[in-house]
Amino acid sequence: MILTRHNTAVFLINHGLLDIRSLLDQVIAIRSHSQRNRGFSVCWPDGRGYYIKQHQPDAGPWEKRSSVAHEAAMLERLAGLAGVPSLRFYEPLRQALVLDWLASSEGAEARAMVGGVPDLAVAQGLGGCLARLHRGLVGIASDDLAGDPPWIIRIDRLYPLAGEDQSWGQAHLVAQVQAMGECMAALATLAAHWPRAQLIHGDMKWQNCRLRGHDCIFIDWELADRGDPLWDMAGLCQSWLKDWIDRQATQPDAAETTRQAASGFVPYQRALARLWQGYCQALEANPDPERLIALCGARLLQTLYEDLAGEAQLSATHILLLQLARNLLVAPRDAARQWLVQT
Question: What is the rounded CA–CA span in Å between residue 68 and residue 97?
Answer without folding.
Answer: 7
